[in-house]
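Title: Prediction job returns without error message
Component: structure pipeline
Severity: low
Priority: P3
Assignee: unassigned

Description:
Job completed but the reporter wants confirmation the result is attached to the right record. Sequence as submitted:
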Amino acid sequence: MKKTIGIILAAGRGTRMGENKMLMRICGYTPIELCMRAMEESCVDEIIITVTDDTARHVHDLPCTKPVKTVLGGETRGESVYNALCAAQDADIAVIHDGARCLVTPDIINRSVEEAKKYGSAVASLPVSDTVRNFENITLDRDSLRIMHTPQAFQYELIRDAYEKDGMHTNTDDCGVFIQADGNPHYFESDFMNQKLTRPSDIAFFESCIHRRLGQMRVGIGEDTHRLVEGRKLILGGVEIDYRMGLLGHSDADVLCHAISDAVLGACALGDIGRHFPDTDPAYKGANSVQLLHRVMTLCRENGFCIVNVDATVTAQEPKLAPHIEKMRENLSGALGVDVSCVSVKATTPEHTGPEGNLECITVRAVATVQKIN
């Protein structure tokens, strides 16, 4: 049976962004994740992603209910597309999409497939609404111009034949390759929000658009206490702190990670860490709690949630935690998959009162705010 193949191009370097934009986090998600989610929720049967070594590792960790295949990208965009087309099997329609257009919706993808089945090709595009003037000061007829977007969908044999004829090195989109091979493209109306992530200044716009798609804001509270004992390491937020006592627990007893994990799970209504990582299970004996927090975040994403921010307060008489807080924030933000600015860690002393003040234990209280993607 012939299949509809969705191709996500994620092998570019994004030099204008200053870093690999395919691995940047926007509202907790990378552009690859957002494009994959849109493909997953569309009529596409199988997803092929062109990757570099770095993006391949990231794609491998992403959950998806549809088959996902990765192929190594080429030196040019055209070579990457051709590699993906060659990797497709039993394809009827190929939907080609730039990973940088991570605001794409399942609706646009579905429309591209429907139009391609009817007309042989379907190129997402928009009419030009602004005055356009070239460097020779000639004003162009905007009524005759269109702005090219992706997805661009084609009957598989037509677009593969077009790429095999030529065009994979010089054309900047698949429509250009199709035209060069004497194809007559069919255009359909894209969405203005289907923009391309190109420069750092674009990030605020993309964050705003993604937040508009998010559902209700939800808040979770986490609290955990571990006893201070001799002969144990003191680990907080993944940072090993030189102190004469450490925290007692089945895992590494990182009370900060545990409280944040419970806050995130609570916000998503997914239970607590005891349910997911029981202290009766030998698999979690001495477990790294930063890694457990990363697994909690994976559960969060699998259930359609993203982190907005986390705030935690550590109550401890000793030791002094201020020198370690920035490293804690860095470790926690990495596990949560958010920018460090979204993670707050504070420390307070109980002024020698209560069990924390008597050096019996350390307690952490945390609040996590999440939003659900519609």
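Comment from assignee: result matches the submitted record. The chain has twelve helices and 16 strands.
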